[in-house]
Amino acid sequence: MIPRADQIEKAAALLNAGELVAFPTETVYGLGSDAGNPAAVTRIFAAKGRPGSHPLIVHVSNLAAARRWAATFPDSAARLAEAFWPGPLTLVVPKSDHVLFEVTGGQPTVALRAPAHPVARALLAAFGRGIAAPSANRYGRISPTRADDVREELGDRVAMVLDGGDCEVGLESTIVACLDGRVMLLRPGAVSRMQIADVVGVVSDADAAAPRAPGSERSHYAPQTPLAIVDGADLNARIERALQRGERLAVLTHAVAPIAPERVTWRPLPAEPSGYGHALYATLRDLDRAGAARILVEAVPATEAWEAIADRLRRAAGA
Ligand code: TXA
Ligand code: MG
Fold first, then answer.
1. 5 partner at 20 to 30 Å CA-CA among 11, 126, 136, 226?
2. How far is the CA of 55 from the centre of ligand 1 (A)?
3. Is the model's pLDDT at 188 over the cut of 90?
4. What integer pLDDT is reported at residue 2 of this predicted model?
């Protein structure tokens, strides 16, 4: 499933020419452009229908490359990079003067990530500079975890889609801001709060003083079918009522089973967070196509291991 070397070369040449290239990372697919070319970066916003004020992550090969985008690289950020890069972690640090306004949305900070996926790494090596990339979906929709999902989202708005198979993690990266001597969790992800705390000590939640992480607002990462989160214990009563009303339902579970599995579109997921996270977005896309009036999702455990999944489900529910 790994693209050939000539496809990587072609993708790097397209980036050099200011075109958009979608590429796999271990979290989700990214919609990439040359982070140093303002016209190319602007194309990302047009392709996604995303407001220009929403900043982009600059993808780099390693910590040395990341330092070139930062005015200062706090010690906490360097230690996190050493512990988790390449990997599903994005670091927000003070930006260097040369970082484009289009990339940061005018914020004084820049988000940086060294992805682990071999195709992303090959593309970064071939291109040789930073690649600005949000998730490769239209604004407000579910991030794509398969090359076909990217094509469905963006069609011919992207010059090339590098196919690297299914994304292993399946949820967007953990975002941590290292600013003013503090470490703040802006978006939970596969690198957990506890893992971060193990490296830097105290991790705080985003507060009023934290940088905005647009896209962390409610009703994001959402399917088009209304989605409701329901306690496992209440699920069957909800299903029964809906069926009595003649409502068509899609049901996503990890522990319980629906009373009438043949009368709903039912997808069970693994009862552990890494398998669940890997499959979640692809499964929501499938359920979104089921023609249901509503997607009912069994609530996941309120434990740290499930934090990123619970966060995305809440946003998908717009709750
Ligand atoms: O896993 C991921 O992070 C994927 C892959 C492609 O790397 N990318 C991704 O990008 O999810 P995007 O644009 O969909 O989400 C990035 C989030 C947005 O909520 C954005 O507001 C936030 O990062 N962000 C970017 N720059 C920031 C900054 N300087 N300060 C605070 N938040 C920032
Ligand atoms: Mg996104």
1. 136
2. 7
3. yes
4. 78
